[in-house]
């Protein structure tokens, strides 16, 4: 073997490995995890890359969301360096991501036997105690920790996140302010701080904070999606809808794009093409955004709406729909596809083109019933008191049937439940029993036919609010202090629906003031409307 073919010495190999590990460390820091893995692969060919290699490989796998593989690799790293507390921390973090809380807690406690003051392990112990429901113990640990280590920004942040999840937004902001003062360039912490500011009604500060977060980490899809929603909430619709496409890359977003073989429509003119449009989120979102299909028609030859379930009878003949496909076989042919809630951004609609939502479901248009009403008939008011329990903000938007009891004795009205499954709750509430009609609703078209018989709908923020608004029926919507993005930060009217009136909380969690205002306005409305009959 000549000199050029000689194998590197052990010292030379170690030096080359250390150089690679430094490059991998840099790639991981840049979130270029796939590249980092590829760079490491040759060093794992013999299965002996050393503790540093195993640790870095685990970090790359974790960054790619491959938590089970990361846990296996971190376990190997720990077995090779049992006194290294970082290995306990990494393994416990991967187990936490897998929701293996008990195993993670055991791992943390083993690590704390090596170093009882290890900050990373103590922070993880706080999170795990909270996740397994031992909140008192968790908060006690966090309180002692920040007292002992007041400069430990990560623990301030973790406790702030805990308060955010509990809805204690003031306490959350105080902790997140402290964390961000200690580490002002952490994009994740800034994103969480923006959440607290938004919930507390400090909207301008929230936008400044989230803008800083995405400037520091432009590829963070969760923060970009968060920013898009805040822009939409504040009425920056052009930039907001453009940024809203980040939702597809946000791991926390509840839906994923279907694996259609066709390309995504870009909003261009393709006069010989058929476009498939599909709803992607809730029923209310679909009813809200179906208004944009007529604006799509000039750009394509044909529009197919993919839709199933209780929306089908309502939307089958909606304007702009050439064919409604329920997903069965044979499937129709199309050339391009688009998510329904992407249409405003794809069409680049200006502010004036977004609105004008008065009766855009003509098949179910609401008409004032005065000319057909017997003189002795009382006014008919529809009622919805809660939304879908699985909605992430349902605890803020929903009420109980009992909350509306004071309205019953104000003035004679005929009450009609529009609440899905509301009959059972009425039967269990003696105050309402016999005082509210409870029709059955097979689908939204049936609900719409009932709404056509009403003079007014009162509802929390649900699909029925959009249905009544789309029909042109008078509808009063009861909103929390910080509502869904589409209702904006202020005002009792909305440009989305001309027949809609918004009753907002004036203070965080204060529904009593809303009920007092609702009672007063309902009496005035009933007296005025009845006098016109």
Q: How would a textbook summarize the main sheet?
A: 6 strands, parallel
Beta strand count? 10
- Report how far the terminal alpha carbons are from each other: 107 Å
> CATH topology of the largest domain, which one?
Serine Threonine Protein Phosphatase 5, Tetratricopeptide repeat
Mean pLDDT: 90
Compute the gyration radius: what is it? 29 Å
- For the record, the count of structural domains works out to 3
Going by CATH, what is the homologous superfamily of the largest domain?
A: Tetratricopeptide repeat domain
Instruction: Tell me the structural class.
Output: alpha/beta
Measured by DSSP, the beta-strand proportion falls in 5-15%
Major sheet strand order: 7-6-5-8-9-10
The helical percent reads 40-55%
Flag low-confidence runs: 1-16
CATH architecture of the largest domain: Alpha Horseshoe
Give the CATH class of the largest domain: Mainly Alpha
The total of helices stands at: 24
């Amino acid at each position: 073997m000549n000199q050029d073919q000689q194998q590197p010495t052990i010292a030379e190999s170690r030096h080359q490995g250390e150089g690679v590990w430094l490059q991998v460390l840099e790639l991981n820091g840049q979130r270029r995890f796939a590249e980092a893995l590829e760079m490491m692969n040759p060093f794992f060919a013999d299965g002996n890359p050393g503790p540093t290699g195993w640790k870095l490989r685990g970090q790359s796998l974790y960054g790619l969301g491959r938590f089970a593989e990361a846990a296996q690799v971190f376990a190997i790293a720990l077995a090779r360096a049992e006194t290294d507390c970082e290995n306990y921390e990494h393994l416990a973090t991967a187990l936490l991501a897998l929701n293996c809380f008990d195993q993670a807690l055991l791992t943390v406690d083993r690590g704390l036997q090596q170093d009882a003051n290890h900050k990373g392990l103590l922070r993880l112990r706080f999170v795990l105690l909270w996740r397994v429901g031992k909140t008192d113990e968790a908060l006690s640990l966090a309180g002692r920790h920040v007292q002992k280590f007041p400069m430990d920004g990560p623990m301030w942040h973790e406790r702030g996140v805990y308060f955010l999840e509990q809805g204690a937004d003031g306490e959350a902001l105080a902790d997140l302010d402290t964390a961000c003062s200690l580490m002002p360039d952490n994009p994740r912490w800034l994103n969480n701080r923006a959440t607290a500011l938004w919930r507390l009604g400090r909207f301008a500060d929230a936008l400044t904070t989230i803008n800083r977060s995405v400037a520091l980490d432009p590829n963070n899809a969760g923060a970009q999606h968060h920013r898009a929603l805040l822009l939409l909430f504040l009425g920056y619709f052009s930039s907001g809808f453009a940024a809203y496409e980040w939702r597809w890359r946000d791991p926390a977003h509840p839906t994923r794009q279907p694996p259609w073989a066709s390309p995504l429509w870009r909003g261009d003119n393709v006069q010989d093409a058929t476009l498939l449009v599909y709803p992607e989120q809730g029923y209310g979102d679909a009813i809200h955004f179906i208004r944009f299909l007529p604006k799509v028609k000039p750009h394509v030859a044909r529009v197919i709406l993919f839709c199933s379930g209780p929306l089908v009878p309502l939307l089958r003949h909606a304007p702009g729909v050439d064919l409604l496909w329920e997903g069965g076989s044979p499937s129709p042919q199309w050339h391009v596809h688009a998510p329904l809630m992407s249409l405003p951004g794809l069409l680049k609609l200006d502010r004036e083109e977004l609105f004008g939502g008065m009766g855009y479901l003509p098949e179910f248009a609401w008409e004032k019933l005065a000319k057909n009403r017997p003189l002795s008939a009382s006014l008919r008011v529809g009622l919805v008191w809660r939304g879908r329990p699985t909605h992430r903000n349902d605890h803020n938007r929903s009420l109980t049937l009992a909350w509306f009891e004071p309205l019953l004795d104000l003035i004679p009205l005929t009450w009609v439940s529009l609440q899905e499954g509301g009959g059972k709750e009425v039967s269990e509430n003696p105050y309402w029993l016999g005082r509210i009609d409870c029709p059955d609703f097979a689908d939204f078209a049936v609900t719409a036919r009932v709404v056509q018989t009403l003079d007014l709908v009162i509802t929390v923020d649900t699909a029925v609010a959009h249905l009544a608004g789309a029909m042109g029926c008078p509808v009063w919507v009861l909103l929390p202090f910080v509502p869904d993005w589409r209702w904006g930060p202020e005002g009792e009217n909305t440009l989305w629906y001309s027949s809609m009136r918004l009753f907002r909380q004036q203070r965080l969690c204060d529904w009593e003031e809303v009920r007092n205002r609702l009672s007063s306005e309902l009496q005035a409305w009933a007296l005025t409307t009845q006098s016109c009959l």
